[in-house]
Structures are given as C-alpha cells and as structure tokens.
Design a protein that fits this description.
The chain is mostly helical and about 400 residues long. It is built from 16 helices and three strands. It is about 65% helix and about 5% strand. The longest helix is centred in the C-terminal third of the chain and has 34 residues. It starts with 5 loop residues before the first helix and ends with a helix.
C-alpha cells in the first residue's frame, strides 16, 4: 500500500493543464447549479442543492480517478488496451440489444444493483484511442504497408464506429475523425487515409441526400434516422414552426441576453425555458451569465489544453505516449467545440455534452479517466528512456 500515498498521486506534470481542468470543473459546477433550477422544481420540490451535491460528488470521484490514473505510468495502459477494446465491443453489443432508451436514443446500460446508467460509447471512445495509439507505435516499421500496417487498425476503427453509429452518430463521427488524425500523426500514408476517408464521406453525403428526400412515413421504423432527418431539416430550413426550433430559439435568446459581459452567475432567465440547459445547451447558459467574454474564454481554455497536449509530441521519445495524449485531447476538445457550435446554431443538434462542464454522472468519471491518461503522459514524458523499444513495453 506504499504506492497509494498522497506524494505519489498528487497532481504532477503540466501545471497549466491541471489548472485548466480545475477551472473547467469549478465553472461547470457553478453552471450546473444555476441551470438545474427548473429541473429541481419539477423533480426535487425546488431543492436545487440536490443537483449541486450530485455534480460535486461525481466531480470529486472523477478527480480521484484522474489522480490515480495519472500516477500510473502510461506505458502500462498499452498492455491491456486490446482487452479494453474487446470489452468495449461487448458493452456496445449489449447496449444495442438491451440498452436503456432515453429520448428515443438507446445509448445507455444500467449497472446492476446500484442502478446507475452510463453511455457505453464513452468507454469505447477511450478504448479505441488507446488501441490505435498502441498499434501505431508498435507497427512503425510496417506503417506504410496497407495490409500489415493500415488494414488491421482501420478494421477496428470502422467496426467500433459502426457499432456506435445507430444510436449516437455524432459520437461515431467524432471518434472516426479523431482516429484519422491519430493515424496521420502516426505516419500512416495519406494515400491510405484518402482511400478510406473519401468513400466514407461520399457514402455519408449520399445517405443524407437519400434520407432527406424520403417521406417520413417510410422512416418511422428506422431507429434514429427520422430524428437525424428532422434535425437536419430544421437546421437547413430554419423552420417557422416554434415547436421544431424551440431549443435553438431559446439558446439564441440566452446568448442575446448575455451581451458582452453577461447577466452574472445565477442570473440566467432562459434556464427556466431551455430544455437540456444543464447538459447539451449549457454553453448557451454560460454565455448568458458570463457574456461573450466568458464564452470566448471557455473556448480558449479548451484550445489551450489541446495546444499543451500537442506540445508533448516534441518532448515524448515514445510514439505511444504522444499519440495517446494528442488523440484523447483532440477527441475531448473536438466534442467541446461541436457542443459550442450547436449552442450558437452553427451546426444541427447532436446531443454531445461539454466535457467536465455539463451535468453528468458516470460520464464525468469516464471523461476523468481520459484526462488522467493525458496527464500520465505529461507526468512521465520527461523521465522516459529514449532507447527503450516500445515492443518491449507491450510484452
């Protein structure tokens, strides 16, 4: 038990990155407390402190997970990345057949006994990025070979993305894009990436055209397809039906109310009208309360975190550590940017939350694990032995 001491698990590595994590967590706690007022009146008899305590509990639990994860040398995660990926496959398949359905989306599994639910795609996202970083680092000698270097990796990327897509297309696309970025940075041939990426984009574009031109009556039993169609149509046409644009309209009102400096913490009025104000549209509430200045500063924090993660590439003598840190940070920041773009109506609604900021439960713990992996690379990167082969580490 000598390992589990404060000196060993206390935050180490890039201090600025730790500072960003702390600021986002505290800011998110305040935003969730402010934005759950209407929800508390509906379900908790007006006791808004219930969601404050709940969010704080998950953040503290997530922070502990982060500390423990970052205290373990990142090379050890390389050893069980394949096992974790196959475990994620099992979870995704279970979700497909037995997952809990909320808002017409079958994305969650319920944990027996304790009753908590979690999105299995969150686990799959971390597992796949771990696996891709591992395979790229071990296949550097054959990385330009299509059959030996590229094909074994892209098959897992495609399979995982396909398992996630039916219930969570946006997460599937974010994950696939992230893996393409990791492979590009891992010296995979651009030609091979193009051979895969171009046909997928073409098929996706044609599928969208087909769905948009198919009457609704033929899509009623097609899962989430009808929901995707309505979201694209509402975004494209800016429908005059207030029921169809209710979320976006109130998000715009919140942003307009915020102005330059905002109405102040807890001063939001749109939190009482905007659905999912504490999760999918929490950025709109943050913009209302902290204004344009606060909104830009939050975006800057995410981008700064990704920049600091990219700096690890120039310090890390190991491909695995660099690719892992960049891949996870890119996925998290891309998710954050898409969430912000939804709030300001730049892209159709997708259901992606704001990492560490949106109200969450097990998702906060899984996200904290991802941040812990990044900080493990940051912590140990300067202590690496440049001549130690990575295939020895993976043994």
């Amino acid at each position: 038990m000598n390992w589990f001491t404060w000196d060993n698990i206390r935050p180490k590595g890039d201090r600025l990155m730790w500072g960003i994590i702390l600021v986002l967590s505290i800011w998110g706690l305040l935003a969730v407390y402010s934005s759950t007022g209407a929800l508390a009146h509906q379900k908790q008899g007006g006791r808004t402190e219930v969601y404050l305590v709940q969010q704080l509990s998950f953040l503290l639990g997530g922070f502990m997970v982060m500390l423990i994860t970052h205290s373990i040398h990142y090379k050890y995660y390389l050893k069980f990345s394949k096992i974790l990926l196959y475990f994620a496959y099992g979870l995704l398949i279970l979700t497909f057949f037995f997952g809990a359905n909320y808002n017409d989306a079958q994305r969650w599994l319920k944990i027996p006994i304790i009753g908590l639910t979690f999105q299995t795609s969150d686990v799959a996202k971390v597992a796949l990025i771990l696996y891709v970083a591992r395979e790229l680092s071990l296949r550097q000698e054959d990385i330009k070979d299509f059959k030996k270097g590229f094909l074994p990796i892209i098959m897992h990327v495609g399979f995982t993305s396909l398992l996630i897509a039916p219930s969570n297309l946006s997460t599937s696309l974010v994950l696939f894009s992230t893996c393409m970025v990791i492979m590009f940075m891992g010296r995979v041939s651009i030609k091979h990436i193009f051979y895969i990426g171009a046909p997928i984009l073409t098929v996706l574009f044609l599928a969208i055209l087909l769905v948009l031109n198919t009457p609704d009556k033929y899509l009623k039993n097609s899962g989430r397809v009808l929901t995707w169609k309505h979201r694209i149509e509402n975004y494209k046409s800016r429908s005059s039906n207030p029921d169809e644009t209710y979320q976006n309209d109130h998000a715009k009102i919140a942003i307009a109310n915020g102005g330059i400096l905002g109405v102040g913490p807890g001063g939001s009025t749109e939190r009482n009208f905007l659905p999912q104000a504490y999760s999918d549209f929490i950025y709109a509430i943050i913009t209302e309360e902290y204004g344009f200045v606060g909104a830009v500063f939050m975006m800057f924090l995410y981008l700064l975190f990704m920049y600091r993660a990219f700096r690890i590439i120039f310090k890390s003598p190991k491909a695995f550590g660099a690719l892992l840190a960049v891949g996870l940070s890119f996925a998290l920041v891309l998710q954050a940017l898409i969430n912000m773009a939804i709030a300001v109506n730049l892209v159709p609604n997708t259901g992606l939350t704001l990492p560490l900021v949106s109200k969450g439960g097990t998702s906060i713990v899984i996200t904290s694990f991802a941040f812990g992996l990044i900080m493990s690379v940051s912590r140990y990167v300067e202590d690496e032995e440049p001549n130690e082969p990575e295939n020895k580490i993976a043994a």
